[in-house]
Specification:
This protein is of the alpha+beta class and 160 residues long. It has a single domain, classed as Cytidine Deaminase, domain 2. It has three helices and seven strands, in the order βαββαββαββ. Strands 1, 2, 3, 4, 5, 6 and 7 form a seven-stranded mixed sheet that branches. A hairpin with a 4-residue loop joins strand 2 and strand 3. The longest helix is centred in the C-terminal third of the chain and has 14 residues. It starts with 10 loop residues before the first strand and ends in an 18-residue tail after the last strand. The structure holds tetrahydrodeoxyuridine (THU). The site of tetrahydrodeoxyuridine has 14 residues, from strand 2 and helix 2.
């Protein structure tokens, strides 16, 4: 038998420990929660991408009366950014969730479908994308999407 152990490193930062750039990105994700259309779950999620030219693109979850048709904040932001600026890799994504009138102490972690889409962004540009998960108790940061989705299925997998 062979055995593989996959490890992920997650760093937890307080607001004053984040760089100015990262703090700004987290703030953009927090603000994006307020643009969420989530009348069914009442769970407002915001995402903010930092493109490599320094610009920020945001998105929020968009729900539908036909529940499965809704889209998560991460994918709303990513697809918008990739349409507007396909020439620019994404350096980082920040994610925040707001419900019952407050941000949660523990960060929200992206769903599996969003992780796969985030992974495609890394794969597309051959460049890691940092992920910042905001919670009032701290922002969890990983340096690559791969830390959140080990044992990946990517374009290369189709060639084997
Ligand atoms: N949601 C996101 O926008 N991002 C996530 O990573 C998890 C869940 C949304 C989908 C749905 O509109 C609501 O949160 C409740 O699941």
């Amino acid at each position: 038998m062979d055995k593989y152990v996959i490890k992920s490193e997650i760093c937890v930062y307080q607001d004053n420990e984040l760089s100015t750039e990262d703090r700004e990105l987290v703030e953009a994700a927090k603000q994006a929660t307020q643009q969420s259309y989530s009348p069914y779950s009442k769970f407002q999620v915001g995402a903010a991408l930092r493109l490599t030219d320094g610009s920020i693109v945001t998105g929020s979850n968009q729900e539908n009366a036909s529940y499965p048709l809704g889209l998560c904040a991460e994918r709303t932001a990513i697809f918008h950014a990739q349409h507007q600026r396909p020439d620019l890799p994404v350096a980082a994504i920040a994610i925040a969730a707001f419900a019952n009138g407050h941000f949660y102490p523990e960060p929200i972690s992206p769903c599996g479908a969003c992780r796969q889409v985030m992974l495609e962004v890394e794969d597309r540009y051959s460049r890691p994308m940092r992920v910042l998960l905001y919670g009032t108790s701290g922002t969890h940061v990983v340096s690559t999407v791969k830390a959140l989705l080990p044992f990946q299925f990517v374009s290369e997998s189709l060639k084997k």
